[in-house]
């Protein structure tokens, strides 16, 4: 069980750290203030990315800190061409500490072109895309020229059970006809979001895991409509956002199908392991950031004549947060290492474990940090409220806690069956 | 230990319930949708109360369901003149079930003129105001012609320790000169908010609890400025809102002082007991509403071939929520009964107990209800996200959990000293 | 919702409190030391009750503090003849504060002849017994001349589902023939334990809740054998204890059947409500005792130069314990009041709620108190280890937490069905 | 961060696993049954080790599975002479998986001569002992010819603060005179326990961490008396046990001092890191054993027509236990690796973290496993009750949770000071 990153990955990690400290942290508060001002002002301006993002992306790319998420296994020539400094992809274990660092900042994943859902969609294209699909969509994504969305979850069915998906993707000759409504489609608020990975029901009579198909649907296809943007606890996560998208008799060429009709679950399996490691590792970074803020506040703010850290259970809360974060990080590294050494199948329990443990940990650590800040903890001038929302929503996104606990329990009981 | 409401209070409770079901519930979703639309549109429109509120207030007042919060002890002639049907105030025990009902709806407290911080400010005026102060401010408040704010908490000091307040209220001849910055001043967003109860430092050399003064500051006094509105997890609670208010050489007549210079703590003590009972009882109602939604969802939504309530720990979660709510309600009734029978001093531990237990309970129950709803739980179309924010912020407002635990522990250890 | 005891019950409560303080507390540590010595010495001596018990029982009875558990509804003439001072039984609400007091001491329930399972068995005889059954078994039980056991749970089936009981009680002519093994039969260690209430399967083909029968089985019947005594976390709860009992072709007259063949569930329903209130109210008293010890320790023991209560989260732990106990007490009073006003059926959820909430609360409060005592907390010289075992085992006895949560959830979901 | 054991350690681990499965597991239940019978019979027989232990020790030693705990850093020639197969000690990372395995069985640590407190005492002798001290005490300990105790904690002071120790070790000429009372001295029940490591106050005026001395006190020295054996939740952990020991004018030669007068804290620091890793890793094994029992029970026991694992939250409980155990194991491996790579000082927070996290985790997992077993979970025929006691007492032994949280918080706040 070796969680050490390769020397090259360790070097990249340090360079990402420096970039964060010198390029992102100094401008982050201003960025959020500017965004808040746009938000207060209302209308659509808030959905137009502020120029800072592109500027930082340019710097990151120039330093070779670009597309670092590209998985060694599938990166192929793309790593050399569009990114990862040094010419090949990183293992999950290598990438994990980088993901942790980018989790400290809401901007960072975008700056390094390592943000969900684009990373997951790029992985799918890498792994399952045809040359044409890759040329048309993967290459501009790797260059951040366009953005993408993953449209799977539906408002009308319990989407925690992915076999429930009822939107249809019917093959008619050399076309696929798409109908239905999707929501929580992250990224659809962004003006550059040009391509949707759509999951729909193709053959209701097939075996439960062979009914659905994944299809590439360009956003500007006739019949595609973003109905409205969703809020998470009052936040809209502009300029990416999460939306409700309806598809009415949308027609795309059969060539837009990924892997083949009825093979959506095959793709979903492969897609989710690394993505969950990324999400969870970013949450570890988020929790570290929150703990740092809590400690700084606790040592500098005075009440009843003493710094907060000397009052009541506050020091113990800090200790508990430290323990929780360290346990969570190790568990994510363990899942990354399992993915690297045993693949998706062997890492099934490990990945579900982090998906339960880490967002819950982050939610609690951030909650503690908010409480340590008094009223300041809730307002948008500090990143804690947004951090809480991020942690909380990841107890639902990519499968609710309860479903992952079910997966773990099933594998656990099998051991003695 | 008799928690039964008087027959008159029981009757009022039933009438409030009917009003909620017939007048408020049917229009509530539309109200929030309209508000959301204004919010998305941006600008100041969202800070203008929608006409529905005044309309419902008229109906409630016509039915004698008005100012029900008026405390029997201090209501005096005002109950008869402005409100509580039957001509006298209610005890805390009587009012508690009414507060619970109004907690189910974000609108209801305003509709019945029973919303914080106006209720607390009216109580202060009732109990400590001069005839002139009452004529000028209490009477229009009782008629909902104006709204008020309580400006105490400050961004620059740990306000959990109220002796920290550093904004000044200096007596100069027959004037009081006010300087400083306050925040989390609830209600200042409302265009009718005309009067602030301000707490400031008058005599830094006096005994720790005799340094501060409460002063009535009309909002339109020269030097008063609402700097900006604050968000709680991205929400602004329009049209009331919470703001940062600065006071620069603000001068008001000495006659605006409440009770007398240096007597702010005396007022604060008396003000907070009933207010905390109201807050907590409303949270019990909020949690009941959330549990009802969770149960309805769990019994009607299907995943993996079964209703959610049959999956994993969901039924146990519902049971735990039921237990938690029932325990919380009883604890609040107990605190109300203590206030009625032993007064603020005798109820000190009981009131701090509910202030710790109930918001935490509500936060957890709402969190569970959100999880049961999947993605729908986070969006503003359901009241759960706002409910969570309400519960969470009450772990801070009116004193953070940690301070109240300190009060309880102190009283507990005194028993054996 | 009136939880006030009647004046007579309040007076009895005060007299029980005085008796505890003057008669029991001063001798309790010695009693346990003597018992520990017998235990260390080994052999059967420890199963012989120490004379102190009978002595204290005599005093209690002389003061009319005897059989106070007798339920108003069913006490009939027995209350006047054998006990409750004043000539009639108490309501559940009346008795609850008395049960709380007796819960502070492991001895007290026995001293007042109010200990499980004798109380439950006496209630069954009162409610369902024939005149002959009452004359033979109830009268000596009311006088503490004999003790009884309830033999229901079986080692070989999940007894949380009472319909699983597989030991048989077959009617053959005017006899009942009993076979099978029972365990966790509390009280069988006591030399005066003369009568078992046995629950067995009579008609496997009947409706699920009409298959079982309750039968009175004198302990000295041929074929009855106490196989061995069980330990709970290393404790045997001498001299009462919990045993495994086997029944091999045990024959008793048909007249020993309670209520009638196949009617065991009817009896079980009626038996359990008040018994659970008693158990839970005693646990509230136990937790109060533990909290008192914790506070005394925290205020008098010094580490790192300060009393423990000033260190870390200790004061907050004390506050949380106070809140938890007060909530639990109110919930039990609520269940008692429900039983009094709505009967077993109406109190179903309320009784299951306390059965989940109170033992868990007590387990946590005692755990905290142990921790506050350092190593001293674990040893038998302090009552904390035994208190923990008592609380923990009540998360299983009378139905595990999980089954009660199921009951509550079922009733909750029915509300909206 | 490489947690992989060396190939040699991996081989030893497999051999220990085989030994456990073939030599220990088949006889363990009988061993405990025999012990229980002795216990019930009373008297001193239970303090005489059953012959099985020595027999198994012989086998283990013959296979080179002996003294595996010997730390690479300090093992020196002793590893080759008395033990670790292959001739040198293991690193903490190497030994951790072995410790985990031995934690599954209460017997195993003794069988492999790897049990506390002998291991800690042997480490102290290795590291700080003179040649004479090592010849006299270390060599027979390494051969399990004698046993030892560590007498530090005192009943009359809060021993969580080790500077409180009040028993005295006064240097008089070439002797040390010892007075005072110690408790929770583990191992003093064993007839072979011949040597105590005693910690006493030598110079009350010295610097806070230079006042105390560690002295070797042969048990048969005049004035040493084991007053009584202590119980933990009713268990005595025979034949080792925990006792209260009094020292009355006990005189030993100055040559028995370890390292030098006033240097006890230096020794304590070095002693505790590896010991805590051992304890915690054994608890991980204990929790794994408990989870295995829980899963086996949950899948084979039926209630309400379904296996327990299909009922309510049981599957989710199993998943949560799996997550908790895996996180705990990783955290212990992390602490072991820190000790190996950065030494005691660098591992300070990591070691305190496991000391908080792991016993709490084990207590909860075992509690869940007990609950899954119904009544069977509490009785001594299953190892769960003893496992719970072991986990619970380690929240106190070697420093209570609260003190370790304090250490962690201090180091955390230093980062930003």
From TrEMBL, chains A, B, C, D:
One of its GO terms (molecular function) is acyl-CoA dehydrogenase activity. Residues 11-144 form the Acyl-CoA dehydrogenase/oxidase N-terminal domain. One of its GO terms (biological process) is fatty acid beta-oxidation using acyl-CoA dehydrogenase. Residues 265-410 form the Acyl-CoA dehydrogenase/oxidase C-terminal domain. Its cofactor is FAD. Homodimer. This is Acyl-CoA dehydrogenase family protein. It comes from Nocardioides panacis.
């Amino acid at each position: 069980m070796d969680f050490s990153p390769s020397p090259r990955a360790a070097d990249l990690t340090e360079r990402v750290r420096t970039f964060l400290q010198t390029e992102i942290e100094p401008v982050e508060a201003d960025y959020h203030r500017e965004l808040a001002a746009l938000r207060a002002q209302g209308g659509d301006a808030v959905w137009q990315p502020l120029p800072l993002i592109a500027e930082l992306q340019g710097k990151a790319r120039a330093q070779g800190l670009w597309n670092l998420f590209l998985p060694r296994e599938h990166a192929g020539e793309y790593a050399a061409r569009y990114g990862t400094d040094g010419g090949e992809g990183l293992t999950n274990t290598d990438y994990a500490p980088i993901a942790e660092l980018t989790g400290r900042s809401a901007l960072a994943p975008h700056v390094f072109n390592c943000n969900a859902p684009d990373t997951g969609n790029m992985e799918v294209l890498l792994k399952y895309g045809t040359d044409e699909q890759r040329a048309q969509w993967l290459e501009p994504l790797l260059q951040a020229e366009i953005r993408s969305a993953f449209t799977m979850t539906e408002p009308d069915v319990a989407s925690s059970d992915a076999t429930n998906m009822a939107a249809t993707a019917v093959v008619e000759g050399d076309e696929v006809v798409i109908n239905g409504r999707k929501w929580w489609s992250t990224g659809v608020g962004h003006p550059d979001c040009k391509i949707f990975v759509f999951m729909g029901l193709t053959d209701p009579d097939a075996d439960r895991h062979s009914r659905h198909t994944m299809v590439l649907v360009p956003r500007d296809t006739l019949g595609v409509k973003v109905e409205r943007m969703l809020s998470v606890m009052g936040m809209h996560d502009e300029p990416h956002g999460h939306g409700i998208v309806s598809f009415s008799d949308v027609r795309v060429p059969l060539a837009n199908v990924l892997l083949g009709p009825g093979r959506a679950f095959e793709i979903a399996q492969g897609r989710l392991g690394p993505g969950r490691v990324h999400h969870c590792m970013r949450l570890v970074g988020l929790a570290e950031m929150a703990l740092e803020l809590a400690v700084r506040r606790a040592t500098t703010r005075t009440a009843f004549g003493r710094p907060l850290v000397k009052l009541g259970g506050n020091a113990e809360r800090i200790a508990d947060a430290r323990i929780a974060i360290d346990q969570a990080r190790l568990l994510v590294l363990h899942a990354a290492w399992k993915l690297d050494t045993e693949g998706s199948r062997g890492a099934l329990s490990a990945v579900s474990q982090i998906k339960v443990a880490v967002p819950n940990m982050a939610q609690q650590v951030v909650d503690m940090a908010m409480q340590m800040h008094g009223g300041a903890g809730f307002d948008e001038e500090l990143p804690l409220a947004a951090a809480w929302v991020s942690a909380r929503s990841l107890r639902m996104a990519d499968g609710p806690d309860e479903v992952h606990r079910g997966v773990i329990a099933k594998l656990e009981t099998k051991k003695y069956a």
